[in-house]
Model the fold of this input.
Amino acid sequence: MDTRYIDTFVMVAECGSMAEAARRMSITPTALAQRLRSLEREFGVPLVIRSGRFVRITEGGARLLSHARRFQRDMRSLKSAVASDGFPGGLRIGTIRTALTNVMPELLKQVSDRYPLLDATLEIGASHDLYHQVLVGKVDAALLVAPPFKLPKPYVWETVRVEPLVVLAPAQLAHVPLKTLLAEQPFMRYDRRTWGGALAEQYLQEQGIQPHERFEMDSPDGILMLVGMGLGVSLVPNCYRPESVPANVHVRPLPTSGLTRKLGLLYPRESPYARLFEALIGDVRAN
Done:
């Protein structure tokens, strides 16, 4: 059996769409369908049910999926054992969107400098989704916000950046007291379903502030733009590079909150890339 067929099945199961899976694997939908049919003949059971543009896995497919993911991990370990540099290639890293402009560029540069032949794929998502992708082996590591709960022992967490909560306000309101800003100005809320947004909600509750909400979104960069347009104020982790903040936006720290968003790398302790991740974290901290 061609191991690529197993990879194809896992990709279809994760995407829920044969067209999307074919796009991500850079093959035609026809070739992808042929691989699935070959697998179904090999195992003697239907693996997916097609419904228009979408698919869902069958009961037999669900039983195969967990074994297929374990098979993929074992194959990466085998490749690692015989690779000249100790790494199997095909590194998959998850990242939250805001890390693309602060931590991730430096990590990718270190990967490129240390191992120029090692290719990497980025998966962008929310922290809670990336956390589960690491646990099921969909990505080898993820750059995300520290989970608000204890991590399982088989996984390693390395903090690489600490971001205090700050208030974003139009520059002309820089003189207004913080509580007045947050209580009286239109408020752009960082999505409270995110781990970073939950910190802002915690602060507001602790201070007894009920803001006049205008928008809620999972995009600190989008919030920064809206504040710059004079649409209101916000309370977000300071994930911005200084040069990215417009002159008409005032960034004000919270002097006594102590609430911070910790950004770090999560990966399995037994990952074939563990040595690489340890080196990358050391490089980032040194810089």
About this structure: The radius of gyration is 22 Å. The mean pLDDT is 86. The first strand starts at residue 48 and ends at 51.
